Amino acid sequence: MRRAAVAGAFYEREKSSLEKRLEECFSGVTREENENIIGAVVPHAGYMYSGGVAANVYAKLPGADTFVILGPNHQGMGSLIAVSVDTWVTPLGEVEVDKAFVDALPKRIIDVDETAHKYEHSIEVQLPFLQFRFDKNFLFVPVCMSLNDEDTTREIGEDLANTIAKFGKKVVVIASSDFTHYEPDRIAREKDEYVIEAIKELDVAKFYNRVYERNSTACGVGPIAAMMQAAKKLGAREGKLIKYATSGDVIGDTSRVVGYGGIIIF
After folding, report:
1. CA-based angle 162:120:260, to the nearest 5?
2. How many CB atoms lie within 10 A of CB 36?
């Protein structure tokens, strides 16, 4: 059983308080499910900062049998590319891993390893949004990534796409990532717009070039690239920025912000 590591920090610990917070995140957000969505980029900061951006993406996601969530490994623990098979618990209840999907994954580069997930927040913070939107009507596959190079993400994307193609069910791949970290608001917006343009074009090579060119501090470069690789192989043609904001929009301090982008891929 994988217990919640950041309940009470990134989001509320008590069920009723968390539900209230999620209701606030979705307040004024139109729910328009798009069945063509194959992938998405969603931020993973504390809900008070990025919950509104995340809600705008989750309001568009269709119901799926399985959600694959790719997240960066901030803790540096465990295998370099690690999938979990434990049942995960949040204040909203338990979420089961799609073990049949995990079993079908090639184990060339992806290891089954719980250590990498034990304290990592990037995947955990996505689950309450999925639970709030879809109750218990889904399974998920958590993949924690310490490697971000293009060759690795291509391999992960191909492995995911090939596995998804084997199953006759709806799967959506979510890349958990924030964008620029701790730069002035104006610079963060310019950098992130430049990088996000490549994501919308599903141009992985351009994405990496722009990340390096602008020294982007997006923490989920690997998860985003792997999601893009998988989505392209599954037939996706473009991406759309649903909402962008920075921490400065919330707290008013624009001197050192974190950028949050919500993107859908279809």
Report:
1. 80
2. 12
DSSP string, 165-211: HHSSS-EEEEEE----EEE-HHHHHHHHHHHHHHHHTT-HHHHHHHH
Could you give the angle at the alpha carbon of 2 between the alpha carbons of 107 and 126, nearest 5°?
A: 85
Q: What is the pLDDT of residues 16-29, one digit of tens each?
A: 999 999 999 999 99
Q: Which residues of the chain form beta strands (DSSP E)? A: 39-42, 66-72, 81-83, 88-90, 93-95, 111-112, 139-145, 171-176, 181-183, 239-246, 257-265
Phi, psi for residue 183 in degrees, rounded to 5: -130, 165
Burial class (CB in 10 A: 0-12, 13-18, 19+), 48: middle
Which H or E element spans position 223?
A: helix 221-233
Map tokens 């964008």 to a residue: 179
Q: Which domains does the chain have, with CATH numbers?
A: 15-265 (3.40.830.10)
pLDDT digits (tens, 9 = 90+) for 210-219: 999 999 999 9
Sign for the CA dihedral angle at 187, 154, 262, 240 comes to: positive
Report the C-alpha gap between 19 and 46 in whole angstroms: 15
Which pTM was predicted? 0.98
Q: What is the mean predicted confidence (pLDDT) over 46-72?
A: 98
Residue-wise pLDDT tens digits, 129-162: 999 999 999 999 999 999 999 999 999 999 999 9
